[in-house]
Amino acid sequence: MRGYNTSMKLRLSRKQSGKMQGHPMTAQRRLLLELIKQADGHIDARELYRLASIKGELISPATIYRSLNLFKTLGLVDERRLGKMRCYYEIKRPSDHQHMVCNCCGKIIEIESPLIRKLVNKVQNEHGFNVTKVEFYLEGYCEQCSDKETHKVVWKSPKNRR
Amino acid sequence: MRGYNTSMKLRLSRKQSGKMQGHPMTAQRRLLLELIKQADGHIDARELYRLASIKGELISPATIYRSLNLFKTLGLVDERRLGKMRCYYEIKRPSDHQHMVCNCCGKIIEIESPLIRKLVNKVQNEHGFNVTKVEFYLEGYCEQCSDKETHKVVWKSPKNRR
DNA sequence: TTAGATGCAAATCATTTGCAATGAA
DNA sequence: TTCATTGCAAATGATTTGCATCTAA
Questions:
Q1: Which residue of A100, B90, B107, B161 could cross-link A109, Cys pair, CB 3.0 to 4.6 Å?
Q2: Mind listing the pLDDT tens digit of every residue in chain B (162 residues)?
Q3: In a 10 Å sphere around its CB, with 0-12 CB exposed, 13-18 middle and 19+ buried, how is residue B98 labelled?
């Protein structure tokens, strides 16, 4: 029995869809999914908050984390922890791909190789282990940064460590 | 093994060695390294604190973390983050080995395969990326737990999540 | 003697949670 | 209507840091 909010409230509540696998599709969830898609992979909670804010849609951190957890549960997004950094989220894709992060510029490079699948299968058979998640993560210096020879300096920067 | 110490102070300060690559070898550091060695891999800060306490040697968390960081810098230990869990430490070893963790019982299985090195080399060459750290981590269910069919229940337990 | 280490408590940082208010279906 | 979601603020839990006090070399 209340009308639309004119101020900081979410504008894009168009109710463009019904439920989401049994869970209500809210404006916040729609926007978050949207942002994750647009981000083209590798976006974190903080960045989602920032982008939403820029769009004039303030979503509380609690909601962001709760939504991300829901998306994970529903299999809509994948969560990756790259190094000691916070978690990154990306729309779930069928292909196996892993990541490589540059310590210097922070660039994230995706890698894909049949060797990964092969390795997982091998391990799975040898140990009778039922693998549900594969995390192959490489850290180092990308081509450009390897030339700069500024590693040590930047590598120590708190900015890159957390 | 307990109760042989009356005061809370560190007893084993025998100054059994000089410096440690330029850094003073203190009783705390000696004990921590000792514990990490005895742990036979995969021990975390909390467990180190607990084990030290049991021995009657109270080492402050701050010192534990500071020591672990030093050990890492000196290349004495390796730090691994297994899943969302806290970091685990192990004495540095020459061989490449990675880990597989059971979601159900928490067991940590080490895996080793020439495929890993092969994969890293391949990626390195293809992308001109200078790899400094390899983290290959598998999550799933070990042989025993796969049979139990109690996955869902235990899997959700907060105990396993953090 | 003295640079560097320790302990303590307070500070960070990411994430979670309790609860009352709000909103989707 | 009704139950799930949201926002807020407080709680958590791991790790870090400032500072005064110790201690290895």
A1: A100
A2: 322 333 334 444 444 557 889 999 999 999 999 999 998 768 999 999 999 999 988 999 999 999 999 999 999 999 888 766 568 888 888 778 888 888 777 788 888 888 888 999 998 889 988 888 888 888 888 888 877 644 332 222 222 222
A3: buried
Nucleotide whose C1' lies closest to the alpha carbon of residue A19: C25
- Exposed, middle or buried by CB within 10 Å (0-12, 13-18, 19+), for A114? exposed
Residue B120 at interface with chain A, using a CB cutoff of 8 Å? yes
User: Is B135 close to A139, i.e. CB distance below 8 A?
Assistant: yes
CA of B131 to C1' of D23 (A): 40
CB A155 within 8 A of CB A139: no
Q: Which nucleotides of D are covered by protein (CB under 7 A)?
A: 4-10, 13-18, 23-25
pTM for this predicted structure:
0.75
* Chain A residues close to B143, C-beta within 8 Å: 127-129
